[in-house]
Amino acid sequence: MPLRHRARWSCLVIELVLLRHGESVWNAEHRYQGQQGTGLSARGRQQAKQAAEYLQSFEFDAIVASDLQRVTETLQPYVDTLDQPSVHVDRRWREIDVGTWGGRLIAEVAAEEPDVVEAFARGEDIARGGGETFRQLRARVWEAMQAIAHAHVRRVLVVTHGGPIRVAAAAALGLPVGAEMVLDPPGNCSLTTLRLDGLTAYNVPTGMDR
């Protein structure tokens, strides 16, 4: 299935509401995370509480989440407000894998591997640290989006990471693979909303950054 085309979703799916996790300890320390990493920082826990309050104005038919700790901790305050919470954990919504870069300071990597960092900044789709490319990330996120589409639900909360949100938004906009790099990285605990006919909101703050 060509990834450059808009999603051909079931007519029953109205929207996906994508929430990025709150600030993690490694975010605060300016470290690469990928599929490694820590739980939330104190600021991230406050962001998660504010996001939970913000989400009270929504009604969701389903909740889907990455399995990584920073996502689990972000989702918990919202889950605590629900009478009968049910969360489907889907590893396909994990952050892009940055391999050996995980846990390393961003400044340290820039100093030790400047050619790779500069190539990525130019838009080259490089598997940083021997991990994944954005093309690979987009393929698995596309599969996860299709799984939601086939679940016959109307509005779904997806709690995930910046990379998956960028490639999901690019798919909704019909951008070719690689063009997701033109989108700004989503902020911590921001919301992005995708509908059948494309992107309706991107990187909307839910708390202290509003």
From TrEMBL:
One of its GO terms (cellular component) is cytoplasm. Gene3D superfamilies: Phosphoglycerate mutase-like. One of its GO terms (molecular function) is phosphatase activity. InterPro entries: His_Pase_superF_clade-1, His_PPase_superfam, PG/BPGM_mutase_AS, PGM_Phosphatase. Substrate binds at residues 20-27, 70. It holds the Pfam family His_Phos_1. SMART domains: PGAM. Keywords: Glycolysis, Isomerase. This is Histidine phosphatase family protein. It comes from Kribbella speibonae.
